[in-house]
Prior knowledge:
Elements: E1 3-6, H1 14-17, E2 18-22, H2 30-38, E3 43-49, E4 52-57, H3 60-70, E5 74-75, E6 78-79, E7 81-84
Keywords: RNA-binding
GO molecular function: mRNA binding
Protein name: RRM domain-containing protein
Amino acid sequence: MVSWVKVSSPAGSAASRLIFVGNLPPQAETDEIQVLFSQYGTVTECAIIKNFAFVHMEDRKSATKAIRSLHLHKLHGTTINVEASRD
Length: 87
C-alpha cells in the first residue's frame, strides 16, 4: 500500500522537483523522509513504496540541494541512493 503525504501545493516543473530515494531500510517512515528532505526546502509530497520513495520538492533548487546533500546518506545504518527521478 502506498501512502502519499501531500504537504502543500507544488510550483514549477514536476520533473525537476521529483526525487527518487532508493535502498530505504525497512524501518523508514514517510514522516521521517519528509523531515530529512525538509532541511533543504519545502517538501510538497512524499511516498514510500517498498524499499524506495518519491519526494516532491517545491522548487528545483531545493531538490538539487537535497540530492547533492543526501545521496549516500546513512539512514538507520543503510546507505540510501538519492537522485533526480527519471521521466
